[in-house]
Design a protein that fits this description.
Length: 107
């Protein structure tokens, strides 16, 4: 069980949101590609019928790269937060053990 003095990671919700956004963008892009392959020569007429597919056709690559960059930044921030807080928590545990007079093994 985690001690109450340890703070919650504020980047977990951000990581969850950016992960969901990337998954939706990737699924939309895949659907667009599959519909494009199935339509063949009639692809331009199917774009006129579905504005979302037309938008994905024009901006889908940019959307995927942007979502991936945001996901990478959120993952890096989450990792750094966890690493910095873990080192702070470990240092405080070591210091409190040393203050209480416990001897280390081998002494």
């Amino acid at each position: 069980m985690l001690p109450s003095s340890r703070h919650r990671n504020p980047f977990h919700p951000l990581l969850l949101a950016t992960g969901a956004a990337f998954a939706l963008a990737a699924c939309s892009y895949c659907v667009m590609i599959l519909k494009q392959r199935a339509a063949g020569a009639e692809w331009q007429s199917s774009l006129a019928a579905d504005p979302w597919l037309a938008w994905m056709d024009r901006h889908g690559g940019t959307l995927l790269v942007t979502a991936l960059a945001m996901l990478a930044a959120a993952a890096l921030a989450d990792f750094l937060w966890e690493t910095l807080n873990a080192s702070r928590y470990d240092n405080s545990t070591v210091n409190s053990t040393a203050r209480s007079g416990n001897k280390q093994e081998g002494e």
